[in-house]
């Protein structure tokens, strides 16, 4: 997974730092995954196994729990964090107490994670989406998706992934396993989110793009310059959260979906 060098800002670009792009946690290090809870906090997962909470109002950065393994993804829903790790384990962490339980283990390396209804969905290193229903067992619901570091759902329950191997932005019906290509990129897409506007957002080498899943129309949103960023996570407000390479910390990009 490669990072593009920071570019020179042009009209319409988001320059970091600026009023549009503010570093909100200088000491956050480099989390591998970010999940806003849309209730005043952002949760940060680290490859060393730590899960941290950033209070957006106070700036306080607190540890929720540690020792979760070689983490890769985080999603937040209903007072819990759902955590994937490279060793094929899916865990649920109670955000109030830090207690955790294992929902699935012994799977291929896990990466993206998302909740829809009462089911947790993950992407794995075999190019699959795996469903883990509450109280149930893991089962593969889609194959042939390549390598997607992220996973997102729209309100209708359709899943979206970004294949870093082939550049495909994919929509998958997890009920049937059918997949269609929404867009193709010449370079690896490293992020995938669904905005409150229903459009699908992703990043390609520092450029944020979006595609309308209904029409297939793809458009440029902005370039993020000034930091070397790999991916972003959208909040319900339309703000995005991202990290720079090294120890640049956590950045908030205001109103990304309204650009």
List keywords for this structure.
single chain; 25 strands; globular; five-stranded mixed β-sheet; 50% strand; 259 residues; four-stranded antiparallel β-sheet
Number of distinct beta strands: 25
The strand line-up of the biggest sheet is 1-22-21-20-19
Share of β-strand residues: over 45%
Order of helices and strands: EEEEEEEEEEEEEEEEEEEEEEEEE
How many helices does DSSP assign? 0
- Termini separation comes to 27 Å
**How many strands, what sense, and barrel or not for the largest sheet?**
5 strands, mixed
Task: Give me the Rg, rounded.
Answer: 17 Å
Mean pLDDT: 93
SS-based class: mainly beta
Which descriptor suits the 3D outline?
globular
**Low-pLDDT windows of residues:** 1-7
Can you give the helix content as a percent range? under 10%
Protein described:
With 259 residues, this protein is mainly beta. The protein has strands at 14-15, 21-25, 33-36, 41-45, 51-55, 61-65, 71-77, 80-85, 90-94, 100-104, 110-116, 119-124, 129-133, 139-142, 152-153, 158-162, 168-173, 179-184, 189-194, 200-204, 207-211, 218-225, 229-234, 240-244, 250-253. Helix content is 0%, strand content 50%.
